[in-house]
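Dear colleague,

Thank you for sharing your sequence with our group. We've completed the structure prediction you requested, and as agreed, I am returning the results in plain text so they can be pasted directly into your records. Please verify that the sequence below matches your submission; if there's any discrepancy, let me know and we will rerun it promptly.
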Amino acid sequence: MTISATIALRGAVRATLESFPPLLDRLGGAKVFEEAPPNAEMPYVSFGDVRSRDWSTSSDTGAEHALIIDVWTQHHGPAAALEVSQIISESLAAATITMIGHKLISILEQSIETRREANGRAWRSRQNFRVITENICFKNICSKWSPFMSAQRGKDLILKVDDGTNAMVSVAGLRTQRLALNADAVDITNQESSGRWRELLAGAGVRRASIAGTGIFKDATSDAMVRQIFFDGLIRRWQVIVPSFGIIEGVFQISSLDYRGEYSAEVTFELALESAGELTFTAL
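Please find the predicted C-alpha cells below.
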C-alpha cells in the first residue's frame, strides 16, 4: 500500500499547488511537473526522488514519505527561488489536501537548501517535507481504519479509555513503551526452612501493573480528555492492546503526564499509568 500512497500523495500535492493562485502568478502558469519537460521555461516546480516506508500500526495501515519539491529559476542569486519556495510552504499549510484512498495525517517542512546549477544559468531551491499518510478504507477493504475515527499514531501498544459513558475510546498509540506486571513477595522463611533457603507464601503478594511510554495523541479531543482525567485525579477503566499478545483491561490512574515537542516534528507525550484494581487479560 506504500506505492499507492506515494502516487496519491504526489498527485494531491501537485493538484494543490496548481490551484494556488499566488504560485501560478509567480510561475506564470501551472508549471508544476512530475518531471520537467526538455527546455521548460523557468521558473517552474518539479518533484524530486521518492522515498517512502511503512508506518503501520496494529490497527491502521500507513506510510511515511520524504517529499522533495524543487524550484528552478534563472535569476542571479537564490532570492527568487526562495520566494517561490515560501509560496509553496504557504500553499501546503493553508490547503486541505485530499488524497484518493488515503488520508493526510501531517506534513512538516524539515529543511530547505539552495544551490547554483553546474551550468551557471539556473538556481534550484529544494524543500524536504516529512509526510505521514493513512489508508482510507470502507467495509474492511484495504485496512482496519474507519473513516469515522480520527487517526491514532504509534507502532506498538494501543491505549483506550472509558470516556465516562462506559464507552471505550481510542486515545493514543505508543511508539516506545514498557508494560510491567509485578507481585510483591511475602517472605515466610524461618529457622526450620530447608537449607535456610527463602520460602514465599503463595498467592499472598500484592499484584500490580504499570504502563509507561511515549506517543502521539490521535487528536485534540483525546489530548484534552486525558489531561482532564489527570488533573481531576480520576481512576478510569483502560484497555491496553498488545499486538499478537492480548488485551489487558482494568482501572488505572495516571501517575504522570509530560509533553515534549521538537521544532521539526509533532508534539509527543510521556504517560505513566498505575493499576488501581483487578485486571483481566484476553488473548488475541
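Summary note from our side: Residues 138-156 have pLDDT under 50 and may be disordered.

Kind regards,
the structure core
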